[in-house]
Amino acid sequence: MELNPEIYFDYKELMDAETEHAECVPVKATHPLYILYTSGTTGAPKGIVRETGGTVVGLNFCMENVFNVHQGSVHFAGSDIGWVVGHSFIVYGPLIRGASSVFFEGKPITPDAGAVWRRVEEYKVTSLYMAPTAVRVVKKEDYDGDWIKKYNTKTINSFALVGERCDPDTIRWIHRHFPHVIINDTWWQTETGWPICCNLLNEPVYG
Fold first, then answer.
1. How far apart are CA 57 and CA 158, in angstroms?
2. Which pTM was predicted?
3. Are 131 and 163 in contact (CB under 8 A)?
4. Rounded to an integer, what distance in angstroms lies between the CA atom of residue 162 and that of residue 133?
5. With contact defined as beta carbons under 8 Å apart, do 120 and 147 qualify?
6. In sequence order, what are the residues at sequence separation of 6 or more whose Cβ sits closer than 8 angstroms to the Cβ of residue 106?
7. Each residue of 51-101: pLDDT tens digit?
8. CATH 3.40.30.10 fits 52-185, yes or no
9. 10 Å Cβ neighbour count for 58?
10. Do the bridges between strand 32-38 and strand 46-51 make them parallel or antiparallel, or are there none, so unpaired?
């Protein structure tokens, strides 16, 4: 099947093509950064407009004081960039903090229950951010943590949760297999842009 070259592009060709360096463009703090649509509880789509300045300030604070992400950290948010977790904690958050970000596509147990832990070892992940649902899928396949033991996960210092309240048994499972990490069950939504209910890692210093 022939693809229309005006619509479809070959990624490798784009990466190999010679391009001119693009300078950063200063924008106002109120400049729209992105729009994400959510139905929430109303069933009617609502376009959430996130402004640049507030997003930068909020994510910088959150990445440091909730996820323990600093310059040189490696952050792994097991999500996709199509919704607010991806926008906030795969793309903008790590970039703002000068950290690396791990992109992952697929189920956390494909091809096996060691999929996440392999990436942790390979990229020396320091902070992990997953939905309780994803953790429960891994827990179901590897309750005793046999797959976890196959990989070096000692680089993880922060294990945060997102999407819904994490059940106590899953929290205990994480703690049993990762006794050295800080576990932080966060709550937020697209409308807020970052956690509004969570534990701070330490008392932040202002000024």
1. 21
2. 0.85
3. yes
4. 9
5. no
6. 115
7. 999 999 999 999 999 999 999 999 999 888 888 899 999 999 999 999 999
8. no
9. 20
10. antiparallel
